[in-house]
Specification:
The structure holds two protein chains of two kinds.
Chain A lengths: L6 H8 L12 E7 L4 E9 L5 E9 L2 H14 L4 H5 L3 H8 L5 H22 L3 H8 L2
Antiparallel strand pairs in A: 1-2, 2-3
Chain B lengths: L17 H15 L39 E4 L2 E5 H6 L7 E2 L2 E2 L1 E2 L10 H14 L9 H20 L8 E4 L2 H16 L5 E5 L8 H10 L2 E5 L9 H9 L3 E7 L11 H10 L3 E5 L11 H4 L3 E5 L10 E5 L1 H6 L10 E4 L4 E3 L13 H17 L1 H19 L5 E3 L11 E6 L4 H10 L2 E2 L1 E3 L4 H7 L4 E5 L6 H17 L3
Parallel strand pairs in B: 5-17, 7-8, 7-9, 9-10, 10-11
Antiparallel strand pairs in B: 1-2, 3-4, 6-12, 11-12, 13-14, 15-16, 16-19, 18-19
Classes of the chains: A alpha+beta, B alpha/beta.
Chain lengths: ~140, ~500
């Protein structure tokens, strides 16, 4: 019926998985999309092996930004910090499916940007990580 | 001076016969069963007499789409102008977006351009492109004449006393910054106040924040009622508290469509010796504006919102005020004499037009003014109003819809902001785009207003000279589809 708004996206928007707060999270980041006013916050709790034991997101905004954040939490759960670092744009876009216009791409990738900002704050950032973040 | 607005309203008045009305009713029913838009056919002018618009319709071939309604604007049985003819002046309206006709409902952001304006820009570059004012050769003289003629046309459009009260700038934003930095820095001092309203566009907030920081002045705001009108009491209270040097307010809200009673506000402000700036970006393109009647001290508007090119706009200011103002930008063209350590300035408006200005833009804007004047600003306003009323009547009935701003469409301009259930405005705009419908979504550069409304964003449809009821029907249909997608 509609190209971007699949049943899956709408389901994640209406019934978000892993939404909420993690008071003991080691990784915590938040960002907004000034264009749309979307807000996404990501919190990751790690175990001693630096594996994501629990993850939550919080935020408000369009279906694309909120569904992608929720889907991303499911993707990172159980992964090591190093694996989380390696998640690419394409990984997120394939979760969402459908064709996005340039403006809506920003909505879709906001959660990944927030996640990576948090991870790089935790493991330390370099010039290349800054470039990576600004490309999102 | 006033009768020029009535230019087109004296056209032949045609009344629909009862037979024709019955005909149109059955057409509406048939049309509703035919949501799909036909492949463009060759445009054959209809032989039927045009019918009353809006509310009544006939099968027509507007832009070649047989399912569209007869697009001739009427008011009180009087013909405003032929919308179908107007649509043919806008080449972009021929575009198909994903196989569907472009339904352009974002004119509050920027309007489309008629070929008369596009052609004049081409003619300028092809035939008489030259820098203005200094060349002594033929084409420079032609360019200068056209540039100054454009200034005169704009002065006539808003009934300024003289063309020298018209300063060409890049747009409304630059006009307001010019006033803030030239007049404001000279006239607003420590502890003094600038009075704004909560419905201002960022371009009429941020320049004043910058000035307030520079001068240690403070900003005060007139609040809003729940239906998007200014709280008059607030305005009076702030004025009477003293220390206000400038009132700066929008004539028409770019989000709510509220038309503010600026004339009244100017009178009250003047009693307290305050200057008044009116942001007319959403009013000059859509209704007759008479600066002498309004008596505002400054008025700012943009060319691209009134069928003109981008990058050209206007600051109007009373001559006596302009003469006292120091330059905003320094450079060529604005000087009388330049010495190594000091210079003297030319008289307004040239004092404020440093460097080579947007010559083509100004000439194009002059053409746009011709175009709008020919349609008649009163007619344009009536056309906008009819469509706004139609939109409130149809869109307003969609389940889960909320329209912001004045409830009575008769009291507002052609700007309709809405939300549907919990569908985010950006999702709404994306879904509408799939149907070829261009609307704006977001905070519309008015975050304080969004805060006041208690929403993060809205979807905004805005109409202009070329829009039709059929396009509003398409909007409503598409909004309903979005409701189904999101199960509102």
């Amino acid at each position: 019926m509609s190209s971007i708004y699949s049943e899956i996206i709408l389901d994640y928007y209406r019934y978000p998985r892993n939404k909420g707060d993690l008071p003991h999270a080691q990784i915590h980041a938040r960002d907004t999309n000034p264009l749309c006013g979307d807000i996404v916050e990501m919190q990751l709790e790690l175990d001693e092996k630096k594996t994501v034991r629990d993850v939550k997101f919080n935020g408000q905004g369009c279906a694309i930004s909120q569904a992608s954040a929720s889907m991303l939490t499911e993707l990172v759960k159980g992964k090591t910090v190093d694996d989380v670092r390696k998640i690419s744009k394409e990984d997120v876009l394939s979760l969402i499916g459908g064709q996005l216009t340039a403006v809506r791409l920003k909505c879709a990738l906001l959660s990944l940007k927030v996640l990576k900002t948090g991870v790089y704050n935790y493991i330390g950032s370099t010039d290349s990580t800054k470039d990576e973040l600004s490309s999102l | 001076m006033k009768q020029r607005w009535a230019a087109a309203s004296s056209s032949t008045s045609l009344k629909a016969t009862s037979h024709a009305v019955a005909d149109t009713v059955s057409c509406r029913k048939a049309k509703n069963k035919l949501p799909g838009l036909a492949v463009p056919k060759s445009t054959t002018p209809t032989t039927k007499p045009p019918l009353t618009f809006p509310g009544q319709l006939a099968q027509s071939t507007v832009r070649g789409y047989a399912t569209q309604k007869q697009a001739t604007a009427y008011i009180h049985g009087k013909r405003l102008y032929d919308v179908e003819k107007v649509r043919h002046d806008f080449p972009i309206l021929n575009r198909l977006i994903s196989g569907k006709p472009l339904t352009y409902l974002d004119s509050a952001a920027t309007t489309q351009k008629p070929r008369q304006v596009i052609d004049e820009l081409t003619r300028f570059y092809n035939e008489y492109n030259a820098n203005v004012h200094r060349g002594v050769y033929k084409i420079s003289e032609e360019a200068t004449a056209a540039y100054e003629e454009a200034r005169a046309k704009i002065a006539r459009l808003i009934n300024a006393n003289s063309p020298s009260e018209i300063v060409f700038v890049r747009g409304t934003t630059e006009a307001i910054n010019l006033v803030a930095q030239s007049w404001g820095r000279t006239n607003v001092g420590l502890g003094e106040g600038i009075l704004l309203t909560e419905m201002e566009h960022h371009s009429n907030i941020v320049p004043w924040q910058l000035l307030a920081k520079q001068k240690g002045a403070h900003l005060k705001y007139v609040g809003l009622t729940d239906d998007g009108h200014l709280v008059h009491e607030d305005f009076r209270r702030h004025l009477e508290s003293g220390g206000i040097k400038l009132v700066t307010m929008t004539h028409v809200s770019n989000v709510l469509g509220t038309i503010n009673p600026v004339r009244e506000y100017v009178r009250e402000a003047h009693k307290q010796s305050c200057r008044v700036l009116v942001d007319a970006a959403q009013s000059v393109p859509h209704m007759p504006v008479d600066v002498q009647d309004m008596d505002c001290d400054f008025l700012a508007f943009s060319g691209h919102k009134m069928c003109g090119p981008t990058g050209i706009g206007v600051l109007y200011a009373k001559k006596t005020i302009l003469e006292e103002m120091p330059p905003y930008h320094g450079g060529g063209e604005m000087i009388r004499e330049v010495h190594l350590y000091e210079s003297t300035w030319r008289d307004p408006p040239y004092r404020f037009e440093a460097g080579t200005t947007n010559i083509a833009g100004a000439i194009g804007l002059g053409k746009a003014v011709d175009y709008l004047s020919e349609l008649g600003l009163r007619n344009i306003q009536a056309h906008d109003q009819e469509l706004t009323e139609y939109t409130h009547g149809t869109l307003g009935k969609v389940k889960g819809i909320r329209i912001y701003g004045p409830e009575n469409p008769r009291t507002k301009a052609g700007v309709i902001s809405f939300n549907l259930g919990d569908v985010h405005a950006h999702d709404m705009a994306s879904l509408l785009d799939e149907d070829g419908i261009a609307v704006r979504s977001g905070h519309h550069c008015a975050q304080p207003l969004m805060e006041r409304l208690g929403v993060s964003s809205t979807t905004r449809a805005s109409v202009y000279v070329y829009n039709t009821e059929a396009e509003i029907d398409r909007l409503v249909e598409s909004v309903e589809r979005a409701g189904r997608v999101f199960k509102v």
